[in-house]
Every structure is written in C-alpha cells, then in structure tokens.
TrEMBL record:
Keyword Lipid metabolism: no
UniProt keywords, alphabetically: Membrane, Nucleotidyltransferase, Transferase, Transmembrane, Transmembrane helix
One cellular component (GO) term of this entry: plasma membrane
Organism: Rhizobium freirei PRF 81
The protein, known as: Putative phosphatidate cytidylyltransferase
Signal sequence segment: none
Gene Ontology terms for molecular function: nucleotidyltransferase activity
An annotated GO BP: peptidoglycan-based cell wall biogenesis
Transmembrane segments: 7-29, 49-82, 94-113, 119-140, 147-172, 184-204, 225-243, 249-272
Length: 316
C-alpha cells in the first residue's frame, strides 16, 4: 500500500469516526430534547448529519475511482450548481442560446481542459473567452432590454459554478516535488477545513453568539461564531499538516486564509439570495438547501488555495 493510500484511509476513517460520534450525539439529543420533532435546532442538526453521510460517501466513491471520478463528480456539481443559479437570475427567451453555450460548451470544455492538464488555457478560458463570446451569442438575438444585467448574471453564474468550482479538481494537476500521487489529499484538506469552518461557526454561534456580524445578509452569523469557527478550523488545518506537503505552521496559515475566503464567500452568496428573496438556492440536500448552499464557501476558497499552493512551490 502506498503512503498516499494509507494517509487517505486514515483520513477517511477519522471522518467516519467523527460522523458516527455526531450521529450518536444527534440521536441522544433528539430522544431527550425533541422526541416530537419540536426543537428546530436539533432537527436541523440531525438533517445536516444525515446529509453529510451522503456527501462523504459520494466523495469517497469519487476518490476511490481516482482522477476520473473526482473530475466527473465536480463536473456534475458544477452542472447542478449552474442550474440552481440560473433559476434565480433574470433571463429571457433571447438568452437561451447563451445559456445553452454555458451548459453544453463552456462547462464541458473547462473540465476537458482540466483533464488534459492544460493550465494555460483552463485558467483563462471562462474569464476571457467565455466572457467575450457569451454576450456576442446573446446579442445576436437582438433583445437589448436589460441586456447588461442579463448577460452579467450569466457570466457571474459561470464564474462561480464552473470556473471557481473547477479549481477543486484542478489541484490534481499540480506537480509538487516529493508529493507525487498524493494530490487528492489536497482536495480532502481543502474540503474538510472549509466545511468544518462552516460547521464550527454554526456551533460556536449557537453556544456563544450574541453579536450579529451581518444581520441584513445572514442573521445567524455572529462575531463569536466567526472567530471561534475560523480559529478552530485553522488549528484543525494545522493538525492535518501530515496530509499536505506543508509544515504545521504553513498548513495552519493556509487553513486560516481559506476559512476567511469561505466565510466571505458565504456572505456574498447570501447577499445574492437576499436580493432574490429566497432562503436557499434549492432543496437538493436535506438540511443544507441547494448544492450552492454547500459549495459557496468552497468555490470562493478553491481558486485562492489552488494558486497559493501552485505559486508557493514555483517560487520556493
């Protein structure tokens, strides 16, 4: 068994251990405090734990399938997230060609370029080529009403749901001396740290939260939850240094950066939901809302993490 496989197995066993403990705690709390389902916080917690079981199993299957499985999983996630995003934006019949190009040209091309490890192209394909050609496709329909708003929303959807999300599997394309064959662990590090930060911010906020940090955007977020969650997740990131090519201090600093990006990404996506008058992006995942509700932190942190890691080693 390779060192990468052994580390991945240890990491997966640790995750399953945490989920088992969380499931037991959730079960006990439900039996004691919410036997009739009247405690919304406990019911929400258990729904989240059940959803996490499903998500962890799916991600685990993708990891076992290797590079192809990871790329296909995130391509599907991008497709589903793009679909959720499009349902909330201002589109007209004249935008159908542009939307079709987003779903059936831009998305598959971006992930094909990832598969081919063409960094020079996939790093600019959407922010340059798609941004230029998308309005060209839309303007050919001749409808100028709210044209700038309509096309900007489609471009923003592509950036968030496809370009940013694709930087998670893009970690597989990095060539790090002495870390060959272990890049999937970087994906695990990113997802675990960012998602744990979300969970821990929720927990710290419920336990000690008093000061609202952005009441108009996300009433549940508090200063205490933010500080406690970010610090806790950064310490966990430092403790997971052994799955990365970094020292404990470097891993902790990277964890701190991506948890900050994840937090502000969540605020940005909350602002969009408030603007559209909805609570969640969708209902795909019980207890979590839509797929974007789970990806919002990851998609904002993934490009930053990818480039920090990439240029860290190119400059060292």
């Amino acid at each position: 068994m390779s060192a990468a496989s052994a580390d991945l197995i240890h990491l997966v066993l640790g995750i399953f251990g945490v989920l088992i403990v969380a499931s037991i705690i959730g079960y006990v709390l439900e039996r004691r405090l919410s036997p009739d389902g009247s405690n919304a916080a406990i019911e929400n917690l258990n729904a989240r734990i059940k959803a996490w079981w499903v998500m962890v199993v799916l991600i685990g299957i993708a990891f076992v399938a290797g590079r192809a499985g990871v790329i296909l999983l995130f391509a599907f996630c991008s497709f589903a997230a793009l679909r959720e995003f499009v349902t909330l934006i201002n589109t007209k019949r004249a935008d159908h060609w542009a939307l079709a190009a987003a779903f059936f040209v831009a998305l598959p091309v971006q992930y094909y370029l990832l598969w081919a490890e063409q960094y020079g192209i996939y790093s600019i394909f959407i922010p340059v080529y798609a941004f230029l050609f998308m309005p060209i496709i839309a303007v050919l329909r001749g409808d100028t009403e709210r044209f700038l708003v309509r096309i900007a929303e489609v471009q923003w959807a592509l950036m968030i749901c496809v370009f940013c999300a694709s930087h998670v599997p893009a970690l597989l394309t990095l060539h790090i001396p002495g870390y060959e064959g272990r890049n999937v662990l970087l994906i695990a590090f990113l997802v675990i740290v960012v998602q744990l930060s979300d969970v821990l911010q929720y927990v710290w906020g419920k336990l000690f939260g008093k000061t609202k940090i952005a009441p108009r955007l996300s009433p549940s977020k508090t200063v205490e939850g933010f500080v406690g969650g970010v610090i806790s997740a950064s310490l966990i990131g430092a403790a997971l240094w052994w799955v990365t090519p970094f020292t404990p201090l470097e891993a902790g600093l990277l964890a701190f950066v991506i948890t900050l990006m994840g937090f502000f990404g969540g605020l940005v996506m909350s602002a969009i939901k408030r603007d559209r008058g909805v609570k969640d992006w969708g209902h795909l995942i019980e207890g979590h809302g839509g797929l974007i509700d789970r990806l919002d932190s990851v998609v904002f942190s993934a490009p930053i993490f990818f480039h920090l890691v990439r240029y860290w080693w190119s400059l060292s």
